[in-house]
Amino acid sequence: MLPEFPMSRQCPYHPPAGYEELRKEGPLAQVRLYDGRTAWAVTGYDETRRLLVDPRLSSDRSRPDFPVLVPRMAAAKLVALVGMDPPEHDVQRRMLIPSFTVKRVNSLRPAIRRIVVERIEALTADGRRAADLVPEFALPVPSTVICELLGVPYGDHEFFEEQTRRMLMATSTAQEAAAASAALIRYFEELIETKLGEPGEGLLDELITERLGRGELTREEVASIAMFLLVAGHETTANMIGLSILTLLEHPGRLARLRSDEGLAAGAVEELLRFLSVADELQRVAAADIEIGGRLIREGDAVYLPNAAANRSPEAFPDPDVLDLERGTRHHLAFGYGVHQCIGQNLARAELEIALYELAVRLPELSLAEPVSQLGTKPGGSVQGILRLPVRW
After folding, report:
1. Which residues share a beta bridge with 4?
2. Separation of alpha carbons 391 and 137, rounded Å
3. What share of the chain is helix, strand, coil (3-state, %, to 5)?
4. Who contacts 91 (Cβ-Cβ below 8 Å, separation ≥6)?
5. How many CB atoms lie within 10 A of CB 3?
6. E strands within the chain?
7. Which of 186, 275, 329, 387 could form an S-S bond across to 376 if both were Cys, CB 3.0 to 4.6 Å?
8. Is the pTM here over 0.90, yes or no?
9. Which ranges in 251-333 belong to alpha helices (H)?
10. Is 294 helix (H, G, I), strand (E, B) or coil?
């Protein structure tokens, strides 16, 4: 019988043990999805890169043969950018690129640092010596940043964070995911209506003025893009911040090196992105036959590209299971590759660099308050991370 997919992690900062078993089958292996459908899981680094730029693999989630990893995926309407193929994908991406360039993100670094420092100061207010860093740091930092970038009221964060959780948790039912998706779309449609009468400053306002106003996007398309950016902009980064803190606390020597030299922050983040690979299980469907890695992917086949497997490939990364903050490589696939490479990667890097360094320096006595085994690991089929991160200092 074929192994079941997705697979869950036994340790929150290591890939599922099943990935190594799949690797023994070669760079591609067949797996079985929850509905009985057979799919290809790609574990080879070179094969993953080649397939991510192959136009014969489709990201179009409107296709009836597009694979469903868990039931809620069929109902969650995250189709903007990530669920499109060129040329429609390229049109929307070009509209958004100016807001996520290195230059634009560098201009946001002072604001990001302010947000991070404010959160740390809130943690330590009134002599506090302990906290759960998931709800009190890892989640609010990227939520605040993406709200400021988009021009979305942060006062609504509890609403959209809850809807995002219902959309993306692998344990959510299709009905729960559909209801959450619809609620977020309604929220943005109402916000767009408000902004049409009272324009503000933010990427959403720019889309309304420059794209909706000129007829280049419909109101539904603007709402869909805004929902995608909001969800992607805080969910993945929040999990990455929390899991990075845990990983550094489990490797105190590496944490001490980061604390001693801010110049290591950028390289440390790249290694953590590779090592943790929280946005796992990229999915595609073959639009034509593809021969690769000694296998034949047939038209209509489901294809999964778990970047946590590719990023632990010994052919691409010597001693891949070792966390080396001075490894000095950026050819990992944590942000994907090709036309669908994460548009917000520069912003995520900046948030991670600032959050991890400031926390390390301002809370030098930081330590875990509970064993890793008690923190709760998110199941396969969702953005990887931990449910809790109780610490003391």
Report:
1. 32
2. 11
3. 55, 10, 40
4. none
5. 14
6. 28-32, 38-42, 57-58, 130-132, 282-286, 290-292, 295-297, 302-305, 367-368, 390-392
7. 387
8. yes
9. 252-260, 265-276, 307-310
10. coil
CB 262 within 8 A of CB 166: no
CB atoms within 10 A of CB 256: 12
Name which of 277, 266, 276, 148 is nearest 203 in CA terms: 148
The residues, any chain, with a CB within 8 Å of residue 214's CB and separated by 6 or more, are none
Strands 130-132 and 38-42 come out as: unpaired
Query: Domain extents for the chain?
Result: 75-276+322-392
User: What confidence category does residue 21 fall into, taking pLDDT thresholds of 50, 70 and 90?
Assistant: very high
Distance CA 262, CA 257 (A): 9
Q: How far apart are CA 140 and CA 130, in angstroms?
A: 17
Cα–Cα–Cα angle for 79, 137, 10, rounded to 5 degrees = 70
Q: DSSP letters of 190-230?
A: HHHHHHHHS--SSHHHHIIIIIITTTSS-HHHHHHHHHHHH
Nearest to 227 by CA among 195, 273, 180: 180
Q: What is the pLDDT of residue 198?
A: 86
Helix axis angle for 88-96 and 219-250, nearest 10°, is 70
Q: In one letter, which amino acid is 277?
A: S
Measured from the Cβ of residue 79, the count of other Cβ atoms closer than 10 Å reads 18
**Per-residue model confidence as pLDDT tens digits over 291-337:** 999 999 999 999 999 999 999 999 999 999 999 999 988 899 999 99
The span from the CA of 305 to the CA of 309, in Å, is 8
Report the distance separating Cα 205 and Cα 162, nearest Å.
Answer: 24
Residue pair 51/57 in contact (Cβ under 8 Å)? The answer is: yes
CATH class of 75-276+322-392: mainly alpha
Give the three-class secondary structure for 341. coil
Task: Name 42's Cβ contacts closer than 8 Å, sequence gap at least 6.
Answer: 27, 28, 48, 51, 293, 303, 304, 305, 306, 309, 310
